[in-house]
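Dig into what follows:

_____
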Amino acid sequence: MTHFVVQMAGPRTLVEDAGRRGWADLGISGCGAWDRRAYREGARLVGNAAGLGCLEVLLGPVRLTCIGGPVLMAATGADVEIDLDGSPRPNGRGFLVADGQTLTVGAPETGLRSYLSVTGGISATPTFASVSADPTRGMGPAPLKTGDVVTVGDGPAGVIATKPVNVGPAPQELILHGVWGPRDDWFTDAGRRALEEATWRVREASDRVGTRLEGPSLERAVTGELTSEPVVRGAIQVPTSGVPLVFGPDHPTTGGYPVIGVVDPDDADRLAQARAGVVVRFRMSSQPWR
């Protein structure tokens, strides 16, 4: 069976797929690829059916040696250099990797996460119907390390996309559209205005659990404690500091701080590429985005 030997694992490389659905009542969040658009684009480029595993590469570099093959691969997400045995390969379109060849995914100049897809998907033992890694809870495959073997699966193939994916520099300013609630009434009018009017910046401490922001403290109208209640990916939660964070794919299923609003799912995915210092602005509405 075709597999890859990990020669260099990078800061954090995870096996991810489309995520877990329907397990929140057990305290299990969705997880899955953070940049879902890049995940789907990679799947199309190699002809994978929906839901198969890929590698989510944080920053890089990552180096893999192919044993077996040939296999069709593609890199999407952050704009990185792809090297195959000393020769460049295009980012955002498929390429073949043969037995014994070594693939290197470089470190991006902008953005954070690249997605490495292979026809058949990455094989791993499913946990709650998904091969997605959840390092926060110790669920799913562990982050890759040097010497690991990554097996190519035999997942169902579909139509291979020949049109290349446009991969470019990650933006240095994000506009996040969202809907107010469910606890926006816990904030004063001034606090709600501040969410939209302030210039927020992504903090270094951000991770797959949530994107933490720098900016002013949002003024509360209700200062009491909130009973823990369900939260979702993209929820804008405001802890005791008054400075919001936006939950990512590994978010908790419940939380005890008020959620002032929820970011549009597609916009929330864009935070996957937001490095520390990137400017974030909110544009909120009382109407759902769908």
Residues 172 and 278 are 5 Å apart (CA to CA). The chain has three helices and 21 strands. The longest helix spans residues 36-46. The radius of gyration is 20 Å.
